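So, read this over?
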Amino acid sequence: MAIVTLIAGVVSIFAVLLDAFQTIILPRRATGRFRLTRLFYLATWRPWVFVTRWVHHPRQRESSYSYYGPMSLIFLLVLWAVALILGFALIYYALGSPFTDAAQGAGFLSDLYVSGTTIFTLGLGDVTPHTGWARVLAILEAGTGFGFLAVVMGYFPVLYGAFSRREVSISLLDARAGSPPTAAELMRRHAYSGGDAALALLLVEWERWSAELLESHISYPLLCYFRSQHNNQSWISALTAVLDTSALLIAGVEGREARQAQLTFAMARHALVDLAQIFGLAPVANMADRLPPERYRQLYDLLCQSGVSVCRDGHSMERLTEMRALYEGYAQALSDYLRMPLPPWIGEHPHKDNWKAVAKLRARTEATAQPGRPAPTVDAAQAIARLVDDHHDF
């Protein structure tokens, strides 16, 4: 019995240390089907979703989902600490509870108490070891607890730094592609003189963003559960919108930025597929068509009206369908699992954009520079009021 208890304690400690090393320190994808972190998220995320789905108000429901990421990190650390305490307590118990406890006597409860006070370096001194092995193990456990605390303290800045870098680009995409972002809006807002170069530069930035997303979220998958500041934004919707735009540029739009679109598409799809595999998600086969024929015609009519050079050779829709088949199934799988909706191809509820108000103010400024034309009068208060962001849904 003592041998079994000793083995159970050693296995518990080894499992925690290995899992913490793979989750925090190892800068690559962690492996193993029976890792504590993987089992923890499998056991907690779906019950959280089941409970949250009964919240009827959309904002409150989204807020409930947003609590899971930070709270799961705290509870994961608690799970690691409890497993370490239990592991050392089992080892003490297997050695015959080698402690002098005047309060309740030697036994497993005393071992558990000693393990807890030692790993948190309390050093109360009311229970003392009376064998050499017990002293060695107490020192080893105190060092483990101190090191564990140091690693955890360095863990939070890394996580939130990666989260912040991810969200900056998502926020910048809002003014360029709407909220939620759509391929149609991104193309329309770049249909101006010099817009091709600006769109190509944007795709370069999102190629790098996709690579950073792949690197950080493969190493720290729990970042996938962290949600954006606004209810109508998410990293999945932003990534899908960029993939939609790249696919559209490759399959049905004339322009030199199609080369960069191929590079961005390859990197973004790579990130999407690998992240789906992290959670063991297969691509959704029979998903609802995000771009049926009537919406496809509406999309191309909108692009033509905006001045985008589209290809209407009779096979553009077929090419676009082939491109969509490469990533939409994975995007839908992640969307269903994380409860982050995919964006439409065309905005469902058009709103008055703030960038138009800024453009009107700039037009008035240019008008004042023309000789012989009186400067227009503008109510400053009304102009500022138009710049208030009224389309975000917190």
Q: What stands out?
A: The CA atoms of residues 184 and 346 lie 5 Å apart. Residues 354-386 form one domain. The beta strands are 99-101, 127-129. The chain has three domains: 2-130, 170-338, 354-386.
